[in-house]
Amino acid sequence: MGSTVKKILLYTFVLVAICQLSLASCFGRQGQYIRVAILQDAVFFSLRIRGPYEIQDPRTNKIISRGRNLNATVAVYSDSILLGNFKADYNSILINVNNPQGLTINGRRFRDNIQISRKDNAHLLVTNVVSLEDYIKGILYHEVSHYWPQEALRAQAIVCRTYALYQMRENKLKDFDVTSDIYSQVYGGLTSERQRTNLAVEETNGDILTYQGRVFPAFFSATCGGHTEDAAELWKIDLPPLKGVVCDFCVESPHYKWHYVLSKQELLKKVVSAGYGIDRIMAISPAGKDPSGRITGLKISSLLKEVSIPAKDLRNLIGPNLIRSTNFEVSTVNNDVVFEGLGWGHGVGMCQWGAYFMAKSGHTYIDILRHYYPGAEVTFMQ
Ligand SMILES: [Zn+2]
Fold first, then answer.
1. Is 193 part of any domain?
2. What is the pLDDT of residues 110-120, one digit of tens each?
3. Exposed, middle or buried, 164 (CB in 10 Å: 0-12/13-18/19+)?
4. Model confidence over 287-302: pLDDT tens digits?
5. What is the Å distance from ligand 1's center to 355 Cα?
6. Based on the structure, what is the number of domains in the chain?
7. Buried b or exposed e, range 169-194, using 16+ CB within 10 angstroms
8. Which end of the chain is more exposed for a tag (fewer CB within 10 A), N or C?
9. Residue 173, in any domain of the structure
10. How far is the centre of ligand 1, averaged over its atoms, from the C-alpha of 72 (Å)?
């Protein structure tokens, strides 16, 4: 059987299977849906819908109301959710929007449907319930430049889809699968879609990374600085595709080198406010290095005492966009502490600028993914 025919048959099977699990009513739309938290603590928000819509109780799938065109402020009123003049006496409502491009939340356009839930604090959780493919279209623009080579965009689409699918499986029992900010992947909905990034999503439709047949958290970072990081060093994830590889590709990245200087006094203030009991900084040195060359911690000595701060805590303490990676050298010059480092980000998984330069030099998206996730396979989503 040809691979295209196999792919079509498999796709049909997956669609039929998933449809049974998906939204009971979404105007005949099919596919896998992801729940993206757009607003997590809203007192009110503006909602506009173009075209027909139906309001549904997501617990029972019962249709509460039907309408056409809506322009309303949504808020909590006692035990109800208010949509303009319409009062829904439910904890949560799902609005199925007929026009797949007809939804606007606080001025930003989204695809597909919206779920609105009342929280205990009388605020609202607002979730865009969107097809996984459309979700990926809404994040690529935020993760990479849409002017990047198509092979790098394809690789990024597969990595983002894999990461999202992993989150969907992990968070099944939670109120949402992902957030729309940096804590998941930044998502801007339809407003953030661009032609070249959409093309990369369509060209890789349904393709994900698996290791031994299983989806894994396909992390990525901006620039690894010469060697990607082992996920086991940062989180308790011990997986061959995330063990770290040499990267000779990102040396021309604009984020390859960084440096940051602050006074001993400024550093002392931050260290003390984080609960480390030390009264002055007399010496500062790395506590050790992991196999990728990154510093595991920083030793700071005063006259009588020495404290050791884990490197990832130090990044958060000073600011992750100032101490851009844990791959750095540290020295003191007079009253200053000087950090000189390589790369930007945690360094686990695909190096995005490495992928850019691999694509520039003629590598395919498959080459890129094989390089950064050794042992992983590109497979069609099941
Ligand atoms: Zn790199």
1. no
2. 999 999 999 98
3. buried
4. 999 999 999 999 999 8
5. 8
6. 1
7. eeeeeeebbbbbeeebbebbbbebbe
8. N
9. no
10. 47
Give how far the C-alpha of residue 309 lies from the chain's centroid of Cα atoms, to the nearest Å: 27
Q: How far is the CA of 159 from the centre of ligand 1 (A)?
A: 16
Name the least confident of 1-10, 44-53, 352-361: 1-10
Give me ligand 1 centre to Cα 322, in Å.
Answer: 19
Range of the domain at 292: 257-342
Describe the chain by its helix, strand, coil percentages, rounded to 5: 30, 35, 35
In this structure, are residues 336 and 264 in contact, taking their beta carbons and an 8 Å threshold?
Answer: yes
- 247 residue type, one letter: C
The CA 257 to ligand 1 mean position distance, Å, reads 12
Ligand 1 centre to CA of 166 (Å) is 24
Is the pLDDT at 357 greater than 60, yes or no? yes
* pLDDT at res. 30: 56
Q: What is the pTM of this model?
A: 0.86
| Spatial CA neighbour of 346 closest among 323, 373, 376 | 323
Who wins on pLDDT, 185 or 297?
Answer: 297
CA of 133 to the centre of ligand 1 (A): 27
Q: How far is the CA of 363 from the centre of ligand 1 (A)?
A: 15
Structure tokens at 327: 């791959």
> pLDDT confidence of 7, banded at 50, 70, 90?
very low
Question: Does residue 126 sit within a domain?
Answer: no
Cα 160 to middle of ligand 1, angstroms: 18
Q: Domain for residue 333, yes or no? A: yes
Name, in order, each residue with C-beta under 8 angstroms of 97's C-beta and a sequence gap of 6 or more: 27, 49, 51, 53, 103, 112, 113, 114
Residue 142 CA, ligand 1 centroid: distance in Å: 19
Q: How far is the CA of 219 from the centre of ligand 1 (A)?
A: 13
Structure tokens at 143: 């993760």
Query: What is the average pLDDT across 8-21?
Result: 39
DSSP state of 229: B
What distance in angstroms lies between residue 223's CA and the mean position of ligand 1's atoms? 5
Quote the percentage of the chain above a pLDDT of 90. Answer: 82
